[in-house]
Amino acid sequence: MSKILVVDDEKNIRLVVGKSLEKAGYAVDYAVDGVEAVDKANNISPDLILLDLRLPKMNGFLVLEALKSDAATEEIPVIILSALSEEDDVQKAISSGAEDFLVKPISQSDLLAAVEESIMEEGTGQEEIEGEDNNEK
Amino acid sequence: MNIKTLKGKILLGFAVMILILAGVVGWSIYNFETLSNAINDILVENYRSIKASDSMVESIERQDSALLLLLRSTEEQGQEIFRRNEKEFYTWLARAEDNITIEGEGAILEKINEKYFEFVSNFDQFYNAEEDQRWQIYNQQLLPSFNEIKNDIRELREINRQAMVDAQGSANSRANQAIIYTIGLALLVTAFSLIFAFYLTKQILRPIKELEKGIKEVAARNFQRKVEVASEDEIGVLADEFNEMISKLKEYEKLNVKKLLMEKEKSEAVVNNLSSPLIVTDKDHKIVLINETAKELFSLREDVLGTHFLEVIKAEEIFEYIKNPEAKEEKTFLLKKNDKKRHYRISTKQVIDEDEEYQFTVTLLEDITRLKEIDNMKSEFVSTVSHEFRTPLTSMNMGLSMVINEDTGELNEEQKELLEAAYEDVERLTELVNDLLDLSKIESGKIEMEFDKVDVNDIIEKTLNPFHKQAEEKEIELKFKQSEDNVFAYADPSKISWVISNLVGNALRYADEGKIEVDAEIKGRRVLVSVADNGPGIPKEYQSKIFEKFVRAGSDKEEKSGTGLGLAIAKEIITAHNGRIWVESEEGEGSTFSFYIPRYGYQEENNE
Q1: Membrane topology type, per the record (chain B) (predicted)?
Q2: Would you say B589 and B459 are in contact if contact means Cβ atoms under 8 Å apart?
């Protein structure tokens, strides 16, 4: 089961996004600010991070930079999910290594499609390993 | 001379002429008269004396003959002849004596008279003497007497003849004199007449000249000079009237000037107290009026009136705008004032007088910095609010869709219906928020246009693709006419596609049947794209407003979905292309939305 870290300071977003992902069969963990996001990324090594840009303590761009500059986390794909939609923001995020940029509001189906695509791209290899892990458990 | 009227002066002139002429005539008549008298004298008086002389000679000669007869003793006959001729002689002598006209004539006649008396006395002696003595008497006394008398008479005749000659000479000289006098007089009179005529003319003309000078002064709008005419004739009266007129004109002018000055001061006060910079230029672009605010804006100190706009105001862009009074679309300029950038909206107005003699351009720069700021604040506010809407909209959207999809458990029909209604409105709200953000981005210039050479036909075709199915469902014929090939424009393809898609979407939304025709044509330097439908059309009162935000025509308000921002965004996009978008519509007949954008290859002037 792929593990997804949802980073958003909005409780409601965490709730609906988390529920949607859980229903789709993903394991979900949460972070409410940038610092927590970086910590969790290191601790739980998620398969995907859904990252908001406007975050307390440390904004999304800084989180993205921190993740991509750390060898332990640089491989984790990051999808931006933000209300910001300026060209500049999109460009900045993509060039900093974001996989995708989703603009709020987004429909459940669009979100799931983007998540699925990203997970698939990460390769079946990892999935298999995880599968093995699961079997072991 | 106390003659006052011009008529009197002229008549006087004539009178003097006539008088002089009369004088000349009188003088001439007098001369002729004198001449004629002189001739008369010659003819009558002297002639008489000569005749008397001749007759006396004849008589005395006959008496001499009688004496000779008597010498031959023919007594009676001789005696008779002698006496008869004696009588005759005396008659003539008496006549001569009656007609003494010349000096010395009297003395001669007296002498003749004496001698003749002696002669007659001697005859008596002779007659009474004897025959032989008669000869002696005759020879010694009578014959010498006779000769002497004859001589005297001849002398008389001679002096008379001489008198006649003299008289003739005198007449001649008189005549000559008269001719000379007449000529002289005539010359004198002519000269005098000329002088008089000249004087009179001058007398008459001088006031006219004065008047003429005065009129010229008035024509040159100088009302200070009065016409000085002392004469009291018609011209004098005219001059008085003229002076009266001048003083009235002066008053009138004064009044007018005062009024004009007041008007001028008023308008100057208005212009100078205008908070917006104002510049008036003539047709050669020379500054004729500039207010303090404008001077301040362009840091002008010295007097700049009469200088060329560009010479003192280094703002080519503004000058270009002033130079081309046609095709005015609202334009704003960024100018520095007191080291702060401020936005100015320029507007120009051409002032042309009736005779088209002058032509002014009034340029007003309206400081709209504050408005811009407010506008920016508004845009920012809209943007912020929209952003803030997005997050809650996300949870609403996703939460609702999960519930509706029954991920969280089964729903009954009623619940589902209600939640679906809520979901629909969440989607509408999402659309609205997105449109608002788009609009504010374009308005604030945050969306960058990616201009390129684009095939408009290609764009239209691709844009129409997703609409065909929808059109079929509504039984609407959606047609791309493609009346021209190679329609290349200089545009941002995705934005133009958005506009076309918005227009076609609107047409589809409002039409229930019929057809929609899309076309692109080259029109000179531009490309014209049109979307025509035969739908319900747009009421007149809405046509000018539908490109404004949140304006939807008439009945549309309740039923049809849509944010009311689509056309506003379309307008922003087309404006960013330096194009224009407009609608022609007839209620019940349909609408045609058209826009033009620069044709590829003709964009230099419009873009960049």
Answers
A1: Multi-pass membrane protein
A2: no
The pair of structure tokens assigned to B553 is: 């025509």
Residues 6+ apart with CB under 8 A from A52: A7, A8, A9, A10, A13, A60, A80, A81, A82
Residues of B in contact with A13 (CB under 8 A): 391, 394-395
Q: Which residues of A touch B (CB under 8 A)?
A: 10, 12-13, 15-17, 19-20, 23, 83-87, 103-109, 111
Domain count of chain B?
Answer: 5
Residues from chain B that touch A17, judged by Cβ atoms under 8 A, are 398
Nearest Cβ partner for A16 among B402, B430, B433: B402
Contact A108 B401 (CB under 8 A): yes
Is residue A34 within 8 Å of residue A62, measured between CB atoms? yes
**Within a domain: residue B604?**
no
Nearest CA in chain B to A25: B407
For residue A15, the enclosing domain spans 3-130
Q: In whole angstroms, what is the distance from residue B82 CA to residue B92 CA?
A: 15
SS3 B281: strand
Same-domain pairing of B244 and B278? no
Measuring CA to CA, how many Å separate A48 from each of A39, A66, A67, A78, B256?
14, 15, 12, 6, 90
Tell me which chain A residues have a C-beta less than 8 angstroms from the C-beta of B392.
Answer: 12
Residue B278 in any domain: the answer is yes
Cβ proximity of A76 and A47 under 8 Å: yes
Digit-coded pLDDT (tens) for B188-214: 878 887 887 788 788 777 778 877 888
**Chain A contact present for B391, CB below 8 A:** yes
Write the ipTM: 0.78
Q: What is the pTM of this model?
A: 0.48
| Number of independent structural domains in chain A | 1
With CB atoms and an 8 Å threshold, state whether A87 touches B397. Answer: no
Residues of B in contact with A107 (CB under 8 A): 397-398, 401
What pLDDT digit, counting tens, does each position of B416-468 carry? 888 888 888 888 888 888 888 877 777 766 667 788 888 888 888 888 888 88
The whole domain housing B339 covers 274-367
Contact A104 B394 (CB under 8 A): yes
CATH number at residue A81: 3.40.50.2300
Query: Looking at the structure, do residues B191 and B318 belong to the same domain, yes or no?
Result: no
Q: Do the Cβ atoms of B391 and A15 come within 8 Å?
A: no
Q: Are B592 and B539 in a shared domain?
A: yes
Q: Are residues B575 and B456 in the same domain?
A: yes
Task: Single out the residue in B314, B334, B367 at which a domain terminates.
Answer: B367
Q: Assign residue B43 the CATH number of its domain.
A: 1.20.120.1730
Across the interface, which of A13, A19, A85 has its CB nearest the CB of B394?
A13
Q: What is the C-alpha to C-alpha distance for residues B312 and B5, in angstroms, rounded to an integer?
A: 66
Which chain A residue's Cα is nearest to B404?
A108
